[in-house]
Specification:
The structure is a homodimer. Chain A contains 8 helices and 10 strands. Chain A is an alpha+beta fold. Chain A has 2 domains: 105 residues, Jelly Rolls (Sandwich); 117 residues, Winged helix-like DNA-binding domain superfamily/Winged helix DNA-binding domain (Arc Repressor Mutant, subunit A, Orthogonal Bundle). In chain A, strands 2-6-4-5 form a 4-stranded antiparallel β-sheet. A 3-stranded antiparallel β-sheet of chain A has the order 1-7-3. Chains A and B meet through strand 4, strand 5, helix 4 and helix 6 of A and strand 4, strand 5, helix 4 and helix 6 of B. Chain A binds a DNA duplex through helix 7. Chains A, B: InterPro entries: cNMP-bd_dom, cNMP-bd_dom_sf, Env_Response_Regulators, HTH_CRP, RmlC-like_jellyroll, WH-like_DNA-bd_sf, WH_DNA-bd_sf.
Chain lengths: 283, 283
DNA sequence: CGCCAGATTGACACGGCTCAAGCGGTGTGG
DNA sequence: CCACACCGCTTGAGCCGTGTCAATCTGGCG
Protein backbone atom coordinates (compact mmCIF):
# COMPACT_ATOMS: atom_id res chain seq x y z
CA UNK A 1 0.00 0.00 0.00
CA UNK A 2 1.64 3.09 1.30
CA UNK A 3 5.19 3.52 0.25
CA UNK A 4 7.44 5.52 2.51
CA UNK A 5 10.96 6.08 3.56
CA UNK A 6 12.55 3.24 5.46
CA UNK A 7 11.60 5.29 8.48
CA UNK A 8 13.20 5.04 11.85
CA UNK A 9 11.34 3.76 14.83
CA UNK A 10 9.27 5.73 17.30
CA UNK A 11 11.29 7.91 19.63
CA UNK A 12 11.32 6.10 22.90
CA UNK A 13 13.13 7.30 25.98
CA UNK A 14 11.97 4.49 28.20
CA UNK A 15 14.67 1.98 28.89
CA UNK A 16 12.91 -0.40 31.21
CA UNK A 17 9.71 -2.44 31.26
CA UNK A 18 6.68 -1.14 33.09
CA UNK A 19 7.32 -3.18 36.15
CA UNK A 20 10.68 -1.71 37.01
CA UNK A 21 10.48 1.55 35.12
CA UNK A 22 9.75 3.65 38.18
CA UNK A 23 11.35 1.63 40.90
CA UNK A 24 14.52 2.81 42.61
CA UNK A 25 17.33 0.48 43.49
CA UNK A 26 15.98 -0.19 46.97
CA UNK A 27 12.59 -1.22 45.68
CA UNK A 28 14.07 -3.35 42.95
CA UNK A 29 16.09 -5.09 45.57
CA UNK A 30 13.09 -5.64 47.76
CA UNK A 31 11.28 -7.14 44.80
CA UNK A 32 14.23 -9.36 44.01
CA UNK A 33 14.48 -10.56 47.58
CA UNK A 34 10.78 -11.36 47.67
CA UNK A 35 11.07 -13.68 44.73
CA UNK A 36 11.43 -17.31 45.55
CA UNK A 37 13.67 -19.17 43.22
CA UNK A 38 14.83 -18.20 39.78
CA UNK A 39 14.14 -21.02 37.37
CA UNK A 40 15.96 -21.68 34.16
CA UNK A 41 13.51 -23.34 31.80
CA UNK A 42 13.65 -24.76 28.32
CA UNK A 43 11.34 -24.06 25.39
CA UNK A 44 8.06 -25.86 25.72
CA UNK A 45 8.04 -25.87 29.51
CA UNK A 46 4.63 -25.15 30.98
CA UNK A 47 4.88 -22.61 33.76
CA UNK A 48 1.21 -22.98 34.51
CA UNK A 49 -1.48 -25.35 33.31
CA UNK A 50 -4.85 -24.01 32.27
CA UNK A 51 -7.42 -24.25 35.08
CA UNK A 52 -4.87 -25.59 37.53
CA UNK A 53 -4.58 -24.07 41.01
CA UNK A 54 -1.81 -21.53 41.45
CA UNK A 55 -0.49 -19.22 44.12
CA UNK A 56 2.51 -17.45 42.65
CA UNK A 57 3.36 -15.06 39.86
CA UNK A 58 5.96 -15.82 37.23
CA UNK A 59 8.10 -12.84 36.25
CA UNK A 60 9.85 -13.48 32.98
CA UNK A 61 13.49 -12.42 33.14
CA UNK A 62 14.66 -13.81 29.86
CA UNK A 63 13.11 -15.54 26.87
CA UNK A 64 9.56 -15.61 25.59
CA UNK A 65 6.39 -17.04 27.09
CA UNK A 66 2.80 -17.23 25.91
CA UNK A 67 -0.52 -17.44 27.66
CA UNK A 68 -2.70 -19.95 25.90
CA UNK A 69 -6.28 -21.03 26.09
CA UNK A 70 -7.61 -24.28 24.75
CA UNK A 71 -11.10 -23.54 23.50
CA UNK A 72 -14.11 -25.79 23.82
CA UNK A 73 -13.69 -27.07 20.28
CA UNK A 74 -10.07 -27.96 20.89
CA UNK A 75 -8.57 -25.04 19.02
CA UNK A 76 -5.94 -22.93 20.69
CA UNK A 77 -5.84 -19.22 21.29
CA UNK A 78 -2.95 -17.11 22.54
CA UNK A 79 -4.24 -13.99 24.31
CA UNK A 80 -0.87 -12.61 25.31
CA UNK A 81 2.85 -12.89 24.72
CA UNK A 82 5.37 -12.17 27.44
CA UNK A 83 8.84 -10.80 26.83
CA UNK A 84 11.51 -10.08 29.46
CA UNK A 85 10.15 -7.88 32.21
CA UNK A 86 6.57 -9.05 31.79
CA UNK A 87 4.57 -11.05 34.28
CA UNK A 88 3.23 -14.21 32.72
CA UNK A 89 0.23 -14.70 34.93
CA UNK A 90 -0.65 -11.49 36.70
CA UNK A 91 -4.16 -12.67 37.51
CA UNK A 92 -2.68 -15.07 40.03
CA UNK A 93 -2.27 -12.02 42.23
CA UNK A 94 -5.91 -12.42 43.24
CA UNK A 95 -7.26 -15.58 41.69
CA UNK A 96 -6.20 -19.07 42.65
CA UNK A 97 -7.11 -20.61 39.35
CA UNK A 98 -6.68 -19.13 35.89
CA UNK A 99 -8.47 -20.13 32.73
CA UNK A 100 -5.31 -19.90 30.69
CA UNK A 101 -2.02 -21.74 30.78
CA UNK A 102 1.47 -20.33 30.31
CA UNK A 103 4.12 -21.99 28.23
CA UNK A 104 7.67 -21.04 27.31
CA UNK A 105 8.16 -20.30 23.63
CA UNK A 106 11.92 -20.30 24.01
CA UNK A 107 14.39 -21.21 26.69
CA UNK A 108 14.56 -18.57 29.39
CA UNK A 109 14.61 -17.72 33.06
CA UNK A 110 11.73 -16.96 35.35
CA UNK A 111 11.47 -15.51 38.83
CA UNK A 112 8.72 -16.94 40.99
CA UNK A 113 6.95 -14.50 43.28
CA UNK A 114 4.53 -16.08 45.75
CA UNK A 115 1.28 -14.22 45.90
CA UNK A 116 1.51 -13.66 49.64
CA UNK A 117 4.91 -12.05 49.34
CA UNK A 118 3.63 -9.80 46.61
CA UNK A 119 0.84 -8.63 48.89
CA UNK A 120 3.31 -8.07 51.69
CA UNK A 121 5.50 -6.04 49.38
CA UNK A 122 2.59 -3.88 48.34
CA UNK A 123 1.89 -3.05 51.94
CA UNK A 124 5.42 -1.99 52.73
CA UNK A 125 6.55 -0.55 49.39
CA UNK A 126 3.91 1.66 47.80
CA UNK A 127 6.11 2.22 44.77
CA UNK A 128 6.03 -1.50 44.04
CA UNK A 129 2.27 -1.60 44.32
CA UNK A 130 2.25 1.32 41.92
CA UNK A 131 4.46 -0.49 39.47
CA UNK A 132 2.17 -3.51 39.51
CA UNK A 133 -0.84 -1.31 38.95
CA UNK A 134 0.75 0.28 35.93
CA UNK A 135 1.68 -3.12 34.60
CA UNK A 136 -1.81 -4.48 35.10
CA UNK A 137 -3.46 -1.55 33.39
CA UNK A 138 -0.97 -1.55 30.54
CA UNK A 139 -1.67 -5.22 30.03
CA UNK A 140 -5.33 -4.41 30.00
CA UNK A 141 -4.72 -1.87 27.30
CA UNK A 142 -2.76 -4.31 25.19
CA UNK A 143 -5.52 -6.88 25.52
CA UNK A 144 -7.99 -4.28 24.36
CA UNK A 145 -5.86 -3.52 21.34
CA UNK A 146 -5.54 -7.19 20.51
CA UNK A 147 -9.28 -7.62 20.76
CA UNK A 148 -9.71 -4.63 18.47
CA UNK A 149 -7.33 -6.21 16.01
CA UNK A 150 -9.24 -9.45 15.90
CA UNK A 151 -12.51 -7.63 15.63
CA UNK A 152 -11.77 -4.92 13.12
CA UNK A 153 -8.52 -5.52 11.28
CA UNK A 154 -7.68 -7.64 8.24
CA UNK A 155 -5.18 -10.46 8.38
CA UNK A 156 -2.30 -8.41 7.03
CA UNK A 157 -3.10 -5.55 9.38
CA UNK A 158 -3.16 -7.91 12.32
CA UNK A 159 0.18 -9.40 11.44
CA UNK A 160 1.66 -5.96 10.84
CA UNK A 161 0.29 -4.65 14.11
CA UNK A 162 1.70 -7.52 16.09
CA UNK A 163 5.11 -7.09 14.53
CA UNK A 164 5.04 -3.36 15.30
CA UNK A 165 4.01 -3.91 18.89
CA UNK A 166 6.69 -6.49 19.47
CA UNK A 167 9.39 -4.28 18.03
CA UNK A 168 8.49 -1.49 20.41
CA UNK A 169 8.21 -3.75 23.42
CA UNK A 170 11.54 -5.33 22.63
CA UNK A 171 13.28 -2.03 22.00
CA UNK A 172 12.18 -0.93 25.43
CA UNK A 173 13.82 -3.85 27.12
CA UNK A 174 16.87 -3.74 24.91
CA UNK A 175 16.12 -6.91 23.03
CA UNK A 176 15.82 -5.49 19.55
CA UNK A 177 18.81 -4.70 17.39
CA UNK A 178 18.08 -1.93 14.93
CA UNK A 179 14.86 -2.82 13.21
CA UNK A 180 14.96 -6.50 13.81
CA UNK A 181 14.52 -8.96 16.61
CA UNK A 182 14.37 -12.66 17.33
CA UNK A 183 10.86 -13.96 17.09
CA UNK A 184 10.70 -17.53 18.38
CA UNK A 185 7.09 -18.14 17.36
CA UNK A 186 6.10 -20.66 14.72
CA UNK A 187 3.62 -19.44 12.13
CA UNK A 188 1.04 -21.57 13.83
CA UNK A 189 1.62 -19.77 17.13
CA UNK A 190 1.41 -16.42 15.39
CA UNK A 191 -1.87 -17.60 13.92
CA UNK A 192 -3.15 -18.57 17.37
CA UNK A 193 -2.29 -15.13 18.67
CA UNK A 194 -4.07 -13.40 15.82
CA UNK A 195 -7.12 -15.58 15.38
CA UNK A 196 -5.94 -16.80 12.01
CA UNK A 197 -4.77 -20.02 10.41
CA UNK A 198 -1.13 -20.93 10.01
CA UNK A 199 -1.70 -21.28 6.28
CA UNK A 200 -3.06 -17.79 6.05
CA UNK A 201 -0.32 -16.35 8.24
CA UNK A 202 2.16 -17.86 5.85
CA UNK A 203 0.55 -16.21 2.89
CA UNK A 204 0.20 -12.91 4.68
CA UNK A 205 3.83 -12.92 5.70
CA UNK A 206 4.84 -13.49 2.10
CA UNK A 207 2.58 -10.70 1.02
CA UNK A 208 4.10 -8.24 3.50
CA UNK A 209 7.50 -9.38 2.34
CA UNK A 210 6.66 -8.77 -1.29
CA UNK A 211 5.68 -5.23 -0.37
CA UNK A 212 9.12 -4.79 1.15
CA UNK A 213 7.63 -3.99 4.52
CA UNK A 214 8.98 -6.73 6.70
CA UNK A 215 10.72 -10.08 6.54
CA UNK A 216 10.02 -12.85 9.00
CA UNK A 217 12.06 -15.98 8.63
CA UNK A 218 14.35 -18.26 10.55
CA UNK A 219 12.75 -17.04 13.76
CA UNK A 220 13.74 -13.45 13.18
CA UNK A 221 11.70 -10.43 12.17
CA UNK A 222 13.25 -7.56 10.28
CA UNK A 223 11.22 -4.46 9.61
CA UNK A 224 12.30 -2.79 6.41
CA UNK A 225 9.86 0.06 6.31
CA UNK A 226 8.52 1.09 9.68
CA UNK A 227 6.61 4.07 8.34
CA UNK A 228 4.70 2.03 5.80
CA UNK A 229 4.19 -0.96 8.07
CA UNK A 230 2.80 1.07 10.95
CA UNK A 231 0.64 3.09 8.58
CA UNK A 232 -0.76 -0.07 7.04
CA UNK A 233 -2.14 -1.28 10.37
CA UNK A 234 -2.76 2.04 12.07
CA UNK A 235 -0.24 1.33 14.78
CA UNK A 236 -0.08 4.04 17.40
CA UNK A 237 2.15 4.00 20.45
CA UNK A 238 -0.34 5.45 22.88
CA UNK A 239 -1.95 2.18 23.93
CA UNK A 240 1.33 0.90 25.31
CA UNK A 241 1.34 3.78 27.80
CA UNK A 242 5.05 4.32 27.76
CA UNK A 243 5.41 7.25 30.08
CA UNK A 244 8.56 8.57 28.53
CA UNK A 245 7.68 8.82 24.89
CA UNK A 246 8.52 12.05 23.11
CA UNK A 247 5.67 14.51 22.88
CA UNK A 248 5.88 14.52 19.14
CA UNK A 249 4.34 11.08 19.24
CA UNK A 250 1.28 12.01 21.21
CA UNK A 251 -1.58 10.17 19.53
CA UNK A 252 -3.64 12.14 17.08
CA UNK A 253 -7.31 12.55 17.89
CA UNK A 254 -9.28 10.33 15.56
CA UNK A 255 -12.42 11.56 13.80
CA UNK A 256 -15.09 11.78 16.47
CA UNK A 257 -18.40 10.43 15.23
CA UNK A 258 -17.72 7.38 13.09
CA UNK A 259 -20.03 4.63 12.07
CA UNK A 260 -19.31 0.94 12.16
CA UNK A 261 -16.83 -0.13 9.58
CA UNK A 262 -16.05 2.70 7.22
CA UNK A 263 -13.57 4.93 5.52
CA UNK A 264 -10.97 7.26 6.86
CA UNK A 265 -7.70 9.05 6.75
CA UNK A 266 -4.59 9.14 8.81
CA UNK A 267 -1.08 7.84 8.78
CA UNK A 268 1.62 8.10 11.39
CA UNK A 269 5.26 7.30 11.01
CA UNK A 270 7.08 8.37 14.11
CA UNK A 271 10.82 8.18 14.33
CA UNK A 272 12.45 6.04 16.91
CA UNK A 273 15.46 6.57 19.04
CA UNK A 274 16.36 3.07 20.20
CA UNK A 275 17.62 2.62 23.67
CA UNK A 276 18.56 -0.34 25.73
CA UNK A 277 19.10 -1.78 29.17
CA UNK A 278 18.62 -5.31 30.27
CA UNK A 279 15.22 -6.10 31.69
CA UNK A 280 15.02 -7.14 35.27
CA UNK A 281 18.49 -8.58 35.11
CA UNK A 282 19.12 -6.69 38.30
CA UNK A 283 16.69 -8.94 40.08
CA UNK B 1 -27.89 -27.83 17.65
CA UNK B 2 -28.09 -29.26 21.09
CA UNK B 3 -31.55 -29.59 22.44
CA UNK B 4 -31.93 -29.54 26.20
CA UNK B 5 -34.28 -28.74 28.99
CA UNK B 6 -35.05 -25.08 29.35
CA UNK B 7 -32.36 -25.25 31.99
CA UNK B 8 -32.02 -22.95 34.91
CA UNK B 9 -29.13 -20.60 35.24
CA UNK B 10 -25.79 -21.21 36.92
CA UNK B 11 -25.94 -21.40 40.68
CA UNK B 12 -24.65 -18.09 41.84
CA UNK B 13 -24.44 -17.04 45.41
CA UNK B 14 -22.76 -13.74 44.76
CA UNK B 15 -25.08 -10.82 45.21
CA UNK B 16 -22.82 -7.92 44.53
CA UNK B 17 -20.44 -6.80 41.83
CA UNK B 18 -16.71 -7.35 42.25
CA UNK B 19 -16.08 -3.87 43.46
CA UNK B 20 -18.26 -4.04 46.53
CA UNK B 21 -18.45 -7.79 46.98
CA UNK B 22 -15.98 -7.91 49.81
CA UNK B 23 -16.31 -4.48 51.29
CA UNK B 24 -17.91 -3.96 54.66
CA UNK B 25 -20.25 -1.08 55.41
CA UNK B 26 -17.46 1.16 56.65
CA UNK B 27 -15.41 0.72 53.50
CA UNK B 28 -18.39 1.18 51.27
CA UNK B 29 -19.09 4.38 53.06
CA UNK B 30 -15.54 5.54 52.67
CA UNK B 31 -15.74 4.81 48.99
CA UNK B 32 -19.00 6.67 48.70
CA UNK B 33 -17.63 9.69 50.51
CA UNK B 34 -14.59 9.77 48.28
CA UNK B 35 -16.69 10.06 45.19
CA UNK B 36 -17.19 13.54 43.92
CA UNK B 37 -20.58 14.14 42.42
CA UNK B 38 -23.12 11.63 41.29
CA UNK B 39 -24.23 12.48 37.76
CA UNK B 40 -27.50 11.53 36.19
CA UNK B 41 -26.89 11.15 32.48
CA UNK B 42 -29.00 10.38 29.46
CA UNK B 43 -28.40 7.82 26.73
CA UNK B 44 -25.73 8.91 24.30
CA UNK B 45 -23.82 11.00 26.80
CA UNK B 46 -20.09 10.66 26.46
CA UNK B 47 -18.47 10.18 29.85
CA UNK B 48 -15.04 10.29 28.30
CA UNK B 49 -13.76 11.07 24.83
CA UNK B 50 -11.19 8.86 23.20
CA UNK B 51 -7.63 10.18 23.64
CA UNK B 52 -8.80 13.06 25.79
CA UNK B 53 -7.04 13.80 29.09
CA UNK B 54 -8.75 12.45 32.19
CA UNK B 55 -8.13 12.29 35.90
CA UNK B 56 -11.13 10.54 37.41
CA UNK B 57 -12.86 7.18 37.33
CA UNK B 58 -16.51 6.77 36.47
CA UNK B 59 -18.30 4.18 38.55
CA UNK B 60 -21.53 3.15 36.89
CA UNK B 61 -24.36 3.00 39.42
CA UNK B 62 -27.25 2.49 37.07
CA UNK B 63 -27.74 1.98 33.35
CA UNK B 64 -25.37 0.74 30.69
CA UNK B 65 -22.18 2.20 29.29
CA UNK B 66 -19.75 1.10 26.61
CA UNK B 67 -16.09 1.68 25.98
CA UNK B 68 -15.53 2.38 22.33
CA UNK B 69 -12.58 2.77 20.06
CA UNK B 70 -12.67 4.44 16.68
CA UNK B 71 -10.22 2.55 14.52
CA UNK B 72 -7.88 4.06 11.97
CA UNK B 73 -10.23 3.19 9.12
CA UNK B 74 -13.14 4.87 10.86
CA UNK B 75 -14.87 1.71 11.99
CA UNK B 76 -15.92 1.37 15.59
CA UNK B 77 -15.07 -1.31 18.10
CA UNK B 78 -16.54 -1.85 21.55
CA UNK B 79 -14.03 -3.61 23.81
CA UNK B 80 -16.17 -3.61 26.94
CA UNK B 81 -19.66 -3.09 28.25
CA UNK B 82 -20.31 -1.75 31.72
CA UNK B 83 -23.34 -2.61 33.82
CA UNK B 84 -24.16 -1.28 37.29
CA UNK B 85 -21.26 -1.76 39.66
CA UNK B 86 -18.62 -1.65 36.93
CA UNK B 87 -16.00 1.02 36.47
CA UNK B 88 -16.19 2.49 33.00
CA UNK B 89 -12.60 3.62 32.70
CA UNK B 90 -10.44 1.84 35.20
CA UNK B 91 -7.25 2.65 33.32
CA UNK B 92 -7.64 6.26 34.40
CA UNK B 93 -6.36 5.07 37.76
CA UNK B 94 -2.84 5.36 36.38
CA UNK B 95 -3.03 6.83 32.91
CA UNK B 96 -4.01 10.38 32.14
CA UNK B 97 -5.17 9.64 28.65
CA UNK B 98 -7.02 6.58 27.40
CA UNK B 99 -7.24 5.34 23.85
CA UNK B 100 -10.92 4.55 24.20
CA UNK B 101 -13.96 6.64 24.90
CA UNK B 102 -16.93 5.84 27.12
CA UNK B 103 -20.50 6.49 26.16
CA UNK B 104 -23.82 5.80 27.86
CA UNK B 105 -25.96 3.23 26.07
CA UNK B 106 -28.95 4.08 28.21
CA UNK B 107 -29.85 6.73 30.72
CA UNK B 108 -28.20 6.11 34.05
CA UNK B 109 -26.25 7.46 36.98
CA UNK B 110 -22.53 7.62 37.48
CA UNK B 111 -20.31 8.34 40.46
CA UNK B 112 -17.14 10.25 39.72
CA UNK B 113 -14.08 9.23 41.70
CA UNK B 114 -11.06 11.49 41.23
CA UNK B 115 -7.91 9.49 40.74
CA UNK B 116 -6.13 11.14 43.63
CA UNK B 117 -8.89 10.27 46.03
CA UNK B 118 -8.80 6.69 44.83
CA UNK B 119 -5.11 6.54 45.60
CA UNK B 120 -5.68 8.06 49.00
CA UNK B 121 -8.36 5.50 49.72
CA UNK B 122 -6.06 2.67 48.75
CA UNK B 123 -3.51 3.88 51.25
CA UNK B 124 -5.94 4.05 54.12
CA UNK B 125 -8.33 1.21 53.30
CA UNK B 126 -6.52 -1.91 52.14
CA UNK B 127 -9.80 -3.67 51.55
CA UNK B 128 -10.72 -1.09 48.96
CA UNK B 129 -7.41 -1.48 47.20
CA UNK B 130 -8.11 -5.20 47.23
CA UNK B 131 -11.52 -4.70 45.72
CA UNK B 132 -10.07 -2.62 42.92
CA UNK B 133 -7.42 -5.21 42.26
CA UNK B 134 -10.02 -7.92 41.95
CA UNK B 135 -12.05 -5.76 39.64
CA UNK B 136 -9.06 -4.95 37.45
CA UNK B 137 -8.04 -8.56 37.13
CA UNK B 138 -11.58 -9.73 36.50
CA UNK B 139 -11.86 -7.14 33.77
CA UNK B 140 -8.64 -8.44 32.36
CA UNK B 141 -10.10 -11.91 32.28
CA UNK B 142 -13.22 -10.75 30.52
CA UNK B 143 -11.15 -8.94 27.92
CA UNK B 144 -9.20 -12.12 27.35
CA UNK B 145 -12.40 -14.06 26.85
CA UNK B 146 -13.70 -11.47 24.41
CA UNK B 147 -10.48 -11.62 22.46
CA UNK B 148 -10.76 -15.40 22.39
CA UNK B 149 -14.28 -15.07 21.08
CA UNK B 150 -13.26 -12.83 18.26
CA UNK B 151 -10.32 -15.01 17.44
CA UNK B 152 -11.75 -18.47 17.65
CA UNK B 153 -15.54 -18.46 17.74
CA UNK B 154 -18.12 -18.28 14.96
CA UNK B 155 -20.65 -15.49 14.73
CA UNK B 156 -23.43 -17.42 16.44
CA UNK B 157 -21.09 -18.58 19.17
CA UNK B 158 -19.96 -15.02 19.78
CA UNK B 159 -23.50 -13.76 20.04
CA UNK B 160 -24.46 -16.62 22.31
CA UNK B 161 -21.44 -16.11 24.50
CA UNK B 162 -22.12 -12.43 24.93
CA UNK B 163 -25.73 -13.08 25.85
CA UNK B 164 -24.66 -15.70 28.40
CA UNK B 165 -22.08 -13.43 29.95
CA UNK B 166 -24.49 -10.56 30.25
CA UNK B 167 -27.13 -12.72 31.88
CA UNK B 168 -24.71 -13.82 34.56
CA UNK B 169 -23.33 -10.35 35.16
CA UNK B 170 -26.82 -8.94 35.43
CA UNK B 171 -28.07 -11.68 37.73
CA UNK B 172 -25.22 -10.86 40.07
CA UNK B 173 -26.26 -7.26 40.38
CA UNK B 174 -29.94 -8.05 40.51
CA UNK B 175 -30.78 -6.65 37.12
CA UNK B 176 -32.03 -9.81 35.45
CA UNK B 177 -35.51 -11.13 35.96
CA UNK B 178 -35.64 -14.88 35.51
CA UNK B 179 -33.94 -15.65 32.25
CA UNK B 180 -34.35 -12.31 30.65
CA UNK B 181 -32.97 -8.82 30.91
CA UNK B 182 -33.11 -5.44 29.27
CA UNK B 183 -30.46 -5.11 26.60
CA UNK B 184 -30.28 -1.49 25.41
CA UNK B 185 -27.85 -2.18 22.57
CA UNK B 186 -28.75 -1.77 18.93
CA UNK B 187 -27.74 -4.60 16.64
CA UNK B 188 -25.05 -2.36 15.29
CA UNK B 189 -23.59 -1.91 18.76
CA UNK B 190 -23.73 -5.63 19.37
CA UNK B 191 -21.86 -6.05 16.10
CA UNK B 192 -19.22 -3.56 17.20
CA UNK B 193 -18.72 -5.49 20.42
CA UNK B 194 -18.35 -8.79 18.59
CA UNK B 195 -16.33 -7.77 15.57
CA UNK B 196 -19.24 -8.45 13.23
CA UNK B 197 -21.57 -6.52 10.97
CA UNK B 198 -25.01 -5.39 12.03
CA UNK B 199 -26.45 -7.25 9.06
CA UNK B 200 -24.85 -10.46 10.16
CA UNK B 201 -25.81 -9.96 13.79
CA UNK B 202 -29.37 -9.62 12.64
CA UNK B 203 -29.23 -12.90 10.76
CA UNK B 204 -27.47 -14.64 13.61
CA UNK B 205 -30.04 -13.46 16.10
CA UNK B 206 -32.80 -14.82 13.91
CA UNK B 207 -30.96 -18.08 13.61
CA UNK B 208 -30.60 -18.46 17.37
CA UNK B 209 -34.25 -17.59 17.69
CA UNK B 210 -35.28 -20.24 15.21
CA UNK B 211 -33.38 -22.78 17.30
CA UNK B 212 -35.45 -21.70 20.28
CA UNK B 213 -32.36 -20.74 22.21
CA UNK B 214 -32.88 -17.08 22.79
CA UNK B 215 -34.99 -14.14 21.70
CA UNK B 216 -33.63 -10.63 21.43
CA UNK B 217 -36.09 -7.94 20.49
CA UNK B 218 -37.45 -4.64 21.63
CA UNK B 219 -34.27 -4.11 23.62
CA UNK B 220 -34.79 -7.20 25.74
CA UNK B 221 -33.07 -10.57 25.74
CA UNK B 222 -34.85 -13.70 26.86
CA UNK B 223 -32.95 -16.93 27.12
CA UNK B 224 -35.19 -19.90 26.45
CA UNK B 225 -32.69 -22.68 26.77
CA UNK B 226 -29.69 -21.88 28.91
CA UNK B 227 -28.27 -25.37 28.70
CA UNK B 228 -28.25 -25.43 24.93
CA UNK B 229 -27.17 -21.82 24.52
CA UNK B 230 -24.21 -22.11 26.86
CA UNK B 231 -23.23 -25.44 25.32
CA UNK B 232 -23.33 -23.95 21.85
CA UNK B 233 -20.71 -21.36 22.69
CA UNK B 234 -18.77 -23.23 25.34
CA UNK B 235 -19.67 -20.72 28.02
CA UNK B 236 -18.03 -21.43 31.35
CA UNK B 237 -18.40 -19.33 34.47
CA UNK B 238 -14.82 -19.57 35.62
CA UNK B 239 -13.47 -16.60 33.70
CA UNK B 240 -15.76 -14.23 35.55
CA UNK B 241 -14.04 -15.20 38.81
CA UNK B 242 -17.14 -15.03 40.93
CA UNK B 243 -15.83 -16.07 44.28
CA UNK B 244 -19.06 -17.47 45.55
CA UNK B 245 -20.11 -19.85 42.83
CA UNK B 246 -21.18 -23.32 43.87
CA UNK B 247 -18.49 -25.96 43.62
CA UNK B 248 -20.58 -27.96 41.25
CA UNK B 249 -19.79 -25.34 38.66
CA UNK B 250 -16.06 -25.53 38.94
CA UNK B 251 -14.75 -25.43 35.40
CA UNK B 252 -13.91 -28.75 33.80
CA UNK B 253 -10.34 -29.27 32.70
CA UNK B 254 -10.18 -29.06 28.94
CA UNK B 255 -8.22 -31.62 26.90
CA UNK B 256 -4.56 -30.84 27.41
CA UNK B 257 -2.60 -31.01 24.18
CA UNK B 258 -4.72 -29.54 21.44
CA UNK B 259 -3.71 -28.26 18.05
CA UNK B 260 -4.86 -25.08 16.48
CA UNK B 261 -8.41 -25.23 15.40
CA UNK B 262 -9.87 -28.69 15.82
CA UNK B 263 -12.43 -31.04 17.21
CA UNK B 264 -13.61 -31.70 20.74
CA UNK B 265 -16.14 -32.64 23.32
CA UNK B 266 -17.76 -31.01 26.27
CA UNK B 267 -21.00 -29.38 27.31
CA UNK B 268 -21.95 -27.65 30.52
CA UNK B 269 -25.38 -26.61 31.64
CA UNK B 270 -25.24 -25.44 35.21
CA UNK B 271 -28.31 -24.54 37.13
CA UNK B 272 -28.69 -21.08 38.48
CA UNK B 273 -30.10 -19.80 41.69
CA UNK B 274 -30.83 -16.17 40.96
CA UNK B 275 -30.15 -13.66 43.62
CA UNK B 276 -30.43 -9.96 43.80
CA UNK B 277 -29.38 -6.78 45.52
CA UNK B 278 -28.95 -3.40 44.02
CA UNK B 279 -25.50 -2.60 42.82
CA UNK B 280 -23.70 0.19 44.50
CA UNK B 281 -26.94 1.88 45.36
CA UNK B 282 -25.55 2.26 48.84
CA UNK B 283 -22.98 4.65 47.49
C1' DC C 1 -49.54 11.69 9.49
C1' DG C 2 -44.74 12.15 8.31
C1' DC C 3 -39.96 11.14 9.87
C1' DC C 4 -36.18 8.54 11.13
C1' DA C 5 -33.31 5.33 13.33
C1' DG C 6 -33.02 0.70 13.49
C1' DA C 7 -34.37 -3.88 11.82
C1' DT C 8 -34.87 -6.92 7.74
C1' DT C 9 -33.95 -9.12 3.48
C1' DG C 10 -31.88 -10.40 -0.95
C1' DA C 11 -28.07 -10.79 -4.21
C1' DC C 12 -23.49 -11.15 -4.68
C1' DA C 13 -18.38 -10.72 -3.73
C1' DC C 14 -14.35 -12.04 -1.27
C1' DG C 15 -11.20 -12.89 2.60
C1' DG C 16 -9.75 -16.47 5.06
C1' DC C 17 -10.46 -21.53 6.01
C1' DT C 18 -10.06 -26.46 4.73
C1' DC C 19 -7.92 -30.20 2.72
C1' DA C 20 -4.01 -32.07 0.76
C1' DA C 21 0.47 -32.55 -1.20
C1' DG C 22 5.13 -31.52 -1.31
C1' DC C 23 9.46 -29.47 0.47
C1' DG C 24 13.41 -28.46 3.57
C1' DG C 25 16.05 -28.45 7.61
C1' DT C 26 17.53 -30.79 11.53
C1' DG C 27 18.04 -34.25 15.00
C1' DT C 28 18.72 -39.20 15.69
C1' DG C 29 19.86 -43.94 15.28
C1' DG C 30 22.30 -47.23 12.73
C1' DC D 1 28.02 -40.15 7.54
C1' DC D 2 23.81 -41.53 5.63
C1' DA D 3 18.71 -42.54 5.93
C1' DC D 4 14.79 -41.69 8.04
C1' DA D 5 11.40 -39.04 10.63
C1' DC D 6 9.36 -35.18 12.04
C1' DC D 7 8.09 -30.61 12.37
C1' DG D 8 7.30 -26.44 10.33
C1' DC D 9 6.96 -23.98 5.99
C1' DT D 10 4.85 -23.65 1.21
C1' DT D 11 1.61 -23.86 -2.22
C1' DG D 12 -2.67 -25.05 -4.89
C1' DA D 13 -7.71 -25.68 -5.38
C1' DG D 14 -12.11 -25.04 -3.89
C1' DC D 15 -15.56 -23.83 -0.40
C1' DC D 16 -18.17 -21.02 2.77
C1' DG D 17 -18.92 -17.71 6.47
C1' DT D 18 -19.23 -12.89 6.62
C1' DG D 19 -19.04 -8.56 4.53
C1' DT D 20 -21.03 -5.25 1.08
C1' DC D 21 -24.52 -2.86 -1.20
C1' DA D 22 -29.05 -1.58 -1.56
C1' DA D 23 -33.82 -1.68 -0.85
C1' DT D 24 -37.70 -2.05 1.98
C1' DC D 25 -40.12 -2.43 6.23
C1' DT D 26 -41.40 -1.09 11.09
C1' DG D 27 -42.11 1.00 15.39
C1' DG D 28 -41.81 5.35 18.04
C1' DC D 29 -42.42 9.85 18.30
C1' DG D 30 -43.43 14.80 17.39
Amino acid sequence: MTTASAGNLPGLKATRPWLSANLDAADRNALARACGDIRTVSAGTDLLRQDAPTNALHILLDGWAARYKIMEDGSRFIPALAVPGDICDLDALRFGQLDYGVTMLSAGTVAVLPRQRADALFATNPAIADAFWSLALAENSILTEWAASMGRRSASQRVAHLLCELLVRLVIVGKAGGHSYDLPLTQEQIADALGLTSVHVNRTLHSLRSMNLVTVQHRRATIHDWAALSALCGFRLSYLHLETVDDEFAPELPPSGARSRHRVTQASGPTLRPSSTSALSAL
